[in-house]
Amino acid sequence: MEAAHVAGVKIRSVCAGVGACGKCKVLVEKGDVIEGSDSHKKFIVQDEIIKGYHLACQSQLLTNARVVIPPESRIEGQQILTNAFLSKVEFDPCCRKQFLRVNPVELEDRSGRVKKVSRLVESVFRQRIPFSDLALLKLEKMEVAGAEGLTVTVDRCTSQSEVVDLDIGDTSLRNYGLAIDLGTTKVVIYLVSFRDGNITDLGSGYNEQLIYGEDLLSRIDYAFRNIEGLSRLQKVSVDTINKIVGAVTSRNNIAPHEIIDVCVAGNTVMTYLLAGLDPSHLVDANVQVSRDPIQRKAQKFGITVNPSASVYCLPNVSRFVGGDAVGDVLASGMYQSTEISILIDMGTNGEVVIGSKGWLLSTSCAAGPAFEGWGIRFGIRSVEGAIEHVRIDPKTLRSIYTVIGGLGIKPEAYAGPGS
Q1: At 348, is the secondary structure helix, strand, or coil?
Q2: How far are the Cα atoms of 47, 70, 346, 382 from residue 387, in angstroms, in the given order?
Q3: Are 196 and 208 in contact (CB under 8 A)?
Q4: pLDDT band at 134, cuts 50/70/90?
Q5: Per residue in 259-286, pLDDT tens?
Q6: How would you classify the pairing of strands 199-206 and 294-297?
Q7: 52 vs 27: CA distance, rounded Å
Q8: Same domain, 322 and 201
């Protein structure tokens, strides 16, 4: 398993490599390995042992080897749903770009430049708005020869508005934000234009924390058991986001610094790990979880957007009901409805909310292990070859099905040990 990680090969590891799930089964075609425990006996039948099957997390390489990773053990080819429906709302982004027309001669005096621009900002926004340290430094050093003016980026997301960036010329239309759905298994990122609030593009991918455990408790355990576990999980989470952001911005010819606001919705554990907060106390059933949102500059998270961009993580409710459920409630509008509604967010971590205007009750469940094969003998997760829809004709009783991957893909099914 370690060798695969180093090589960038992703193998399923529901239990974070402790030999408790049997999902990292591989076929060693050539080379010598030894078993580090007897865990494999629970998951690999005799016929498979003869063929050369091993659990990757419990087997140590003794020589160079050729290893085949069967489809059911791979983290690839899965279906990621990315469709988004946005109801019409009054669009009022908390980050704005404003072009300030100014004679470049007035800005040539570096010593008086900050005062001059500060007065312009105050006249436009009708309040005194301080400059961030990065914006001040940029303003003092920038060359303004021939410029018709400056574009200031004002962040109103925090308790005190702040000028966080400046550009030469009019860049007010190049103003973007990110909405990030940070799932336990999958990450989906929407690039939103702050001109009109429309989704410009989206990107998705696997949460690369998967190799350290597929369910929340496994990742909490990994963060607790390993000296560098928490920092590694935080880095991997940010790396996943940065890869998707890089692909989306590249496709749309957008510079990272043009993204000036980021909003993240994730369950409680994912939010803790992104922020680098120790999640180990979340295993306590009676623990009280802070309901204050986590908000930091992108530079502190390590997310490759404008360093001064505000990264806002939607607040958590309890141990396993997080900001993603809060986002669901807000987007659905159920908190304003006079009728009782039920909302179900069924991901690796399942969250259920019931209520109406004035009250809400919530709970959570470990949906991923149930639906994705931990503890069941038969079944396959949402990978290429899995049957995703079945319809039975009520008259002929003939069944019609579709398979992930489309026409020409043969249905696959994985049967567990002893089948």
Answers
A1: coil
A2: 27, 18, 19, 8
A3: no
A4: confident
A5: 999 999 999 999 999 999 999 999 888 8
A6: unpaired
A7: 5
A8: yes
Identify whether 407 is part of a domain: no
Per-residue DSSP letter, 340: -
Q: Which residue has the tokens 């929407």?
A: 190
Both structure tokens of 379: 């079944």
Q: With respect to residue 311, please indicate whether it lies within any of the assigned structural domains.
A: yes
Phi-psi region of 180 (alpha: psi -120 to 50; beta: other; left: phi over 0): beta
Give the pLDDT band (50/70/90) at residue 254.
very high
Domain range for 218 is 176-326
Beta bridge partners of 33: 61
| pLDDT per position as a tens digit, 192-249 | 999 888 899 999 988 999 888 878 888 999 898 888 999 999 999 999 999 999 999 9
* Domain boundary, last residue among 277, 307, 326: 326
Which residue is associated with the tokens 């009676």? 286
For the residues 368-373, what does the mean pLDDT come to?
Answer: 64
Classify residue 418: in a domain, yes or no.
no
Domain count, the chain: 3
Angle among Cα 353, 358, 360 to the nearest 5 degrees reads 15
151/238 same-domain check: no
Q: Which residues partner with 193 through β-bridges?
A: 176
